[in-house]
């Protein structure tokens, strides 16, 4: 890994997804996530893999999750690979697309969302 990759977050992200993330890759995955929100709160993190700010926010959120004793259902959406799914979330729930963005769902409804430095584990729990 080059020096600049260490500073700016190179391509090391590929395959390094934390174990607590459930990956959303299809509309069916999104439907399952929303269906799960009827049993417990879920959070979808929308991440741009090419954005330094998004990478920084993701790392900070992951640190919060790992340090917490609270359990939750965390879903990860790669915006570059699956932008149509992000668009569907925006359309279906009336939430303007941003990146990075964390959206919390309960009982099939978006109950909270934040972007950039406003993203925190406290929004979920």
Walkthrough of the structure:
The chain is α/β, with parallel strands linked by helices and 125 residues long. It has a single domain (20-123), classed as Glutaredoxin. It is built from 4 helices and 5 strands. It has helices at residues 3-8, 27-36, 52-67, 83-93; strands at 21-23, 42-47, 73-78, 101-106, 109-115. Strands 1-3-2-4-5 form a 5-stranded mixed sheet, sandwiched between helices. Strand 2, helix 3 (52-67) and strand 3 (73-78) form a beta-alpha-beta unit. The radius of gyration is 14 Å and the shape is globular. The chain starts with a helix and ends in a 10-residue tail after the last strand. InterPro entries: BrxC. Pfam families: BrxC (PF11009). This is Bacillithiol system redox-active protein YtxJ.
Keywords:
single chain, 125 residues, alpha/beta, Glutaredoxin, 5-stranded mixed sheet, 34% helix, 22% strand, disordered N terminus
Uncertain spans: 1-15
Return the domain count.
Answer: 1
- Give the ordered list of helices and strands: HEHEHEHEE
CATH level-two architecture: 3-Layer(aba) Sandwich
* Helix count from the secondary structure assignment: 4
Instruction: State Rg.
Output: 14 Å
Number of strands: 5
Strand residues, percent: 15-25%
């Amino acid at each position: 890994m080059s020096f600049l990759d260490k500073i700016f977050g190179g391509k090391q992200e590929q395959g390094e997804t934390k174990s607590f993330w459930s990956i959303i890759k299809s509309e069916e995955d999104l439907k399952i996530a929303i269906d799960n929100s009827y049993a417990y709160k879920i959070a979808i993190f929308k991440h741009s893999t090419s954005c330094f700010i998004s990478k920084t926010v993701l790392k900070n959120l992951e640190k919060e999750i790992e340090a917490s004793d609270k359990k939750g259902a965390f879903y990860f959406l790669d915006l570059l690979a699956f932008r149509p799914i992000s668009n569907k979330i925006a359309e279906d729930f009336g939430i303007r697309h941003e990146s990075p963005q964390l959206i919390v769902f309960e009982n099939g409804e978006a109950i909270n969302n934040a972007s950039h430095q406003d993203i925190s584990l406290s929004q979920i729990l």
